[in-house]
Design the sequence.
């Protein structure tokens, strides 16, 4: 029987473990990535347990715990244990499914169990080449905005390195002052997450890009792997009031830096924010990574 007390917090020391496990069992949703978990651990208290060649993840936000489908070899007995644990320790929505393979498996084992879409947390997946080139009619408006930026500003693009990482940190302090990060709890959590990412940039295994205008940083991106064919943009920050349309520049330049290695770029979810949903849709995702959840009531009715 699984015990929540045996789960361990995700820490920087776990990078090699997760890298190796995810090589054998590739992920598709950004929330399961090591970088996401370790950077946001102060907010979501990500924990895991290794059992039977699989890992089980949990997150706890505002004292409400949720569990995820096992990541590893398919083991119906382990899944039963996870469901039992979710009912013992989880909230009203105790189980989440973050990939289509596990969704299919759960439907096979429990065909009558209702799975509910969590649309706000669907990840947007784009062809890297599309974002790098902005070719064709669907991108005509964005392409014009990029060309206007190129006429108005002389800018340079560079990778984040040990030589400029301190400048990135300084830029983010300025960005947080502009956004007034401490005025809203979620922005304060994001501030801590992105500064943790920068302070541990190379230990986590991140990469990223900088846009400079006149030698001054105007935008940055922080990127990590999801699987062999997909990268994820964990953070993307800019000063659009100073440099109009600069978010479009960092987006397309980041894609250009990734396209030789990754077919797809994951730009995470929209969290149900209307403006963010509209923006992400405007870039024409190739597909979405769907997220589903199961309620406590349904687990008790169909899995007991």
Sequence:
């Amino acid at each position: 029987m699984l015990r929540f007390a045996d789960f361990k917090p995700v820490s920087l020391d776990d990078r090699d473990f997760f890298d190796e496990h995810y090589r054998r069992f590739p992920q598709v949703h950004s929330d399961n990535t090591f970088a996401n978990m370790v950077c946001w651990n102060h907010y979501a208290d990500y924990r895991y347990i290794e059992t039977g060649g699989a890992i089980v993840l949990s997150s706890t936000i505002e004292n409400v715990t949720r569990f995820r489908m096992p990541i590893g070899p398919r083991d119906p007995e382990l899944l039963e244990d996870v469901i039992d644990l979710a009912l013992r320790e989880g909230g009203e929505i105790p189980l989440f499914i973050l990939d289509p393979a596990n969704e299919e498996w759960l439907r096979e084992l429990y065909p009558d169990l209702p799975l509910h879409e969590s649309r706000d947390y669907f990840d947007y997946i784009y062809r890297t080449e599309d974002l790098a080139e902005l070719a064709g009619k669907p991108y005509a408006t964005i392409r014009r905005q990029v060309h206007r930026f190129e006429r108005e500003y002389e800018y340079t693009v560079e990778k984040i390195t040990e030589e400029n990482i301190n400048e990135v940190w300084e830029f983010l302090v300025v960005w947080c002052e502009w956004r007034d990060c401490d005025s809203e709890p979620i922005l304060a959590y994001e501030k801590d997450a992105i500064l943790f990412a920068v302070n541990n940039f190379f230990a986590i295994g991140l990469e990223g890009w900088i846009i400079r205008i006149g030698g001054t940083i105007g935008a940055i991106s922080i990127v990590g792997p999801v699987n062999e064919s997909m990268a994820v943009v964990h953070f993307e920050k800019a000063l659009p009031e100073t440099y109009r349309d600069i978010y479009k520049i960092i987006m397309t330049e980041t894609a250009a830096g990734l396209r030789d290695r990754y077919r797809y770029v994951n730009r995470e979810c929209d969290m149900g924010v209307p403006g963010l949903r509209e923006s992400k849709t405007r870039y024409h995702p190739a597909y979405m990574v769907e997220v589903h959840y199961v309620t406590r009531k349904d687990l008790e009715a169909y899995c007991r």
Remarks:
- The chain has two domains: 4-122+291-303, 123-269.
- The mean pLDDT is 97.
- The two ends are 15 Å apart (CA to CA).
